[in-house]
């Protein structure tokens, strides 16, 4: 008789455990708590701090986050006006470094071109 009571208790416990496990499996996982963000610090001076050699990081542009008047005041910066992309999305105006000029081959002047004999 004691074995019968023990078997029933074991069966009831397994049944309850099965119900709890299946109910927990059907619930979506809870999202982890987001860490509290620190208040934004004041912007540091971004006047082109040099990157350390060998680190593989790009130096910050001296033109980044400048307003239009400040951008125009710097010789190495150029202001890019706001535009609209092909997909209709609006792109804000911004300041950027002027592109480096590409060295072109010297073009022949018309007088010099006439002096070159034509091939026969």
What does this structure look like?
- The chain is built from three helices and four strands; from the N terminus they run ααββββα.
- It has helices at 2-26, 68-73, 110-115; strands at residues 77-80, 83-84, 90-91, 94-97.
- The chain has a domain at 68-97.
- 31% of the residues lie in helices and 10% in strands.
- The chain has 120 residues and is an alpha+beta fold.
- The chain has a two-stranded antiparallel ribbon with strand order 1-4. Strands 2-3 form a two-stranded antiparallel ribbon.
- The relative contact order is 0.08.
Short account of what is shown:
With 120 residues, the chain is an alpha+beta fold. 31% of the residues lie in helices and 10% in strands. The chain has a domain at 68-97.
Radius of gyration: 36 Å
Question: How would you sum up the major sheet?
Answer: 2 strands, antiparallel
Query: Strand-residue fraction?
Result: 5-15%
Distance between the termini: 121 Å
Class from secondary-structure proportions: alpha+beta
Mean pLDDT: 73
Percent of residues in helices:
25-40%
Count of discrete alpha- or pi-helical segments spanning 4 or more residues = 3
Shape field: rod-shaped
Q: How many strand units?
A: 4
The parts where pLDDT drops under 50 for at least 5 residues are none
Helix-strand sequence: HHEEEEH
Strand order, main sheet: write it out. Answer: 1-4
